[in-house]
Amino acid sequence: MPNNIQLDSNGNLRHFLTVEGLKRQTLTDILDLAESFATVDAQSVKKVPLLRGKTIANLFFESSTRTRTTFELAAKRLSADVLNINIQTSATSKGESLLDMLHNLEAMHCDMFVVRHADSGAAHFIARHVAPHVSVVNAGDGRHAHPTQGMLDMFTIRRHKGPDFGALRVAIVGDIMHSRVARSQIHALNILGVGELRAVAPKTLVPPEAGALGVHVFHDMARGLKDVDVVIMLRLQRERMQGALIPSGSEFYQLYGLDANMLAHARPDVIVMHPGPINRGIEIDSAVADGEQSVILEQVSNGIAVRMAVMSMCLGRAPDAGEGA
Ligand code: CP
User: Fold this and answer.
1) Given ligand 1 and candidates 61, 62, 64, 137, which is best to mutate, with the most ligand atoms within 8 Å of its CB?
2) Stated pTM of the model
């Protein structure tokens, strides 16, 4: 899919559909700006006026807890007006097409659509059909991409490990095949120059393009976690699996579940990440998910600042990161 649809004629972000193909500087700009927004969270008045007068519509055709709510909070902290469209009760249930619904929202002067959809490519499709003043942000499309999740994960890693991604060994563990999050993480880590990127999974859950993306594949979890700085666990996405790709939940946990014994193979200062929703006892033990090395809830908090950065950049209202927000 072409990436340049994301950029305006000056090379600035207009839509944010995928991390793939973006420049390292663009990712660094997002991270730097998010850093300045993270301080807004600590203020008693958690608002900046950057998107005052803008209207943002959240269009979630698929369920979500973290992404939808942190997009809403991010928009509100930027002083935008937010519409949460209830897809189930919208006129699409009366046969209205997706494009007709979007054109009606454009007629209400919406400036941005935040879209989650079960179909890969849905956000690109919408971006190709919106009015010139409207931006589209992909909040997860099928198994293709979840770019703001990828960026909030980079933000979390940078906060803990510093800006030199080249010094880091990162392992992504579990159902990589069906994970849009993993795809966005892999692209982002490669663009930021990660030292070593590993995929730890059974053969049936490793995407065929892993090798071409420079990912070292391990089927043995202990070997895959040896001396890593960051472990990213993934949920088994059974809703996207066709046929039996894993023997059983308990057998999968025996081989690829993260408990304290398995985590001991990583570096002592390893951080444990998971985009959520977590399935305790399926891919991760509660003692690890809630343990000292877990940054899982920090990832959720960081999603607000990163989404503020992406939305303000797409709408051309980003201050220089150095100026603060
Ligand atoms: N990480 C993530 O996308 O979570 P939600 O499905 O709750 O949005």
Assistant:
1) 64
2) 0.94
CATH classification of the domain holding 211: 3.40.50.1370
Whether residues 126 and 157 fall in one domain = no
Inform me whether the pLDDT recorded for 316 exceeds 60.
Answer: yes
Q: Which domain holds residue 117?
A: 24-144+301-314
Q: What is the DSSP string of 239-276?
A: GG--S--SS-HHHHHHHH-B-HHHHTTS-TT-EEE--S
> How does pLDDT run across 227-262, given as a tens digit for each residue?
999 999 999 887 666 666 666 778 889 999 999 999
Quick check: is 17 in a domain?
A: no
pLDDT digits (tens, 9 = 90+) for 205-227: 999 999 999 999 999 999 999 99
| Number of domains within the chain | 2
Burial class (CB in 10 A: 0-12, 13-18, 19+), 254: exposed
The residue whose CA is least distant from atom 3 of ligand 1 is: 67
